[in-house]
Design brief:
With 230 residues, the protein is α+β, with helices and mostly antiparallel strands. The chain has helices at residues 3-19, 26-34, 44-54, 57-62, 65-69, 76-97, 106-117, 154-164, 184-199, and strands at residues 124-130, 136-144, 168-174, 203-210, 215-217. Strands 2-1-3-4-5 form a 5-stranded mixed β-sheet, with helices on both faces.
């Protein structure tokens, strides 16, 4: 590696220490990260190839190890580092949610879900269980694969609620197509789960469908009330 590029790496790191990623191009953020996996090579061209191939940083971090390794210049260590960063972000945001009143800060749950479900190739159905103060007690993945009311069993949902001693729940699933527009099947599932939860005095606050750049809220669209039935 040339002295010129060694100096470039040093300047990138010093910029990050001073200002974080403010003023960085996407490829520079990725370049800085790759310097820790590829210490003896100019990685700027590789960073630019990755950004172009996956259409931005989000696409890079949503890519699988196999997809990343298909790019000329990428090795397994570099690909694992990128996927590890995303998993760490997911854990960080999940821990931020625990014990927080997310009914008053719905953006926090959407931020977590956007990371947790971004780039998923299959549908995942999650339940976020809350206490009487609307603080998060736990997050459970209840199903992976095509989702309808025949595979998301209300009994499993309620059993998990009892295990967490939950008083309410938020349901979440993703649309791998990227379009969060709900289907008739989604509406039927929401109503069936709300009825089952209501029967044991558990409130359903929402059913959120996550797409690529947006989400759908069943509560905001009048599908559920978010209150106990009398």
């Amino acid at each position: 590696m040339s002295e010129t590029y060694h100096g470039h790496r040093k300047r990138l790191r010093q910029r990050f220490i001073r200002t974080g990623t403010e003023g960085f191009h996407d490829y520079e953020i990725l370049e800085l990260l790759l310097t820790y996996a590829i210490p003896q090579r100019d990685v700027k061209p590789l960073a630019k190839r990755l950004i172009a191939r996956f259409k931005g940083l989000r696409g890079v971090f949503d890519a699988t190890v196999e997809e990343l390794c298909s790019i000329n210049g990428m090795g397994e260590y570099s690909a694992l580092l990128i996927t590890l960063i995303k998993e760490i972000c997911k854990i960080y945001l999940q821990e931020q949610l625990l014990g927080k009143d997310i009914i008053r800060s719905p953006k926090d749950v959407v931020d977590f879900l956007n990371i947790a479900l971004s780039g998923e190739r299959v549908e995942k159905f999650l339940a976020i269980y809350l206490n009487s103060k609307n603080e998060v007690l736990g997050i459970e993945t209840l199903h992976e694969g095509t989702i309808d009311q025949t595979v998301v069993y209300p009994r499993k949902v309620i059993e998990k609620a009892f295990q967490h001693n939950a008083r309410s729940v938020i349901f979440v699933h993703n649309h791998p197509s990227g379009d969060p527009t709900p289907s008739t099947r989604d509406m039927e599932l929401t109503r069936n789960l709300e009825a089952a939860a209501s029967a044991v005095d558990i409130i359903v606050h929402d059913h959120i469908i996550i797409g690529k750049n947006s989400h759908f809220s069943a509560r905001e669209n009048g599908w559920i009330s978010g209150r106990k039935r009398r």
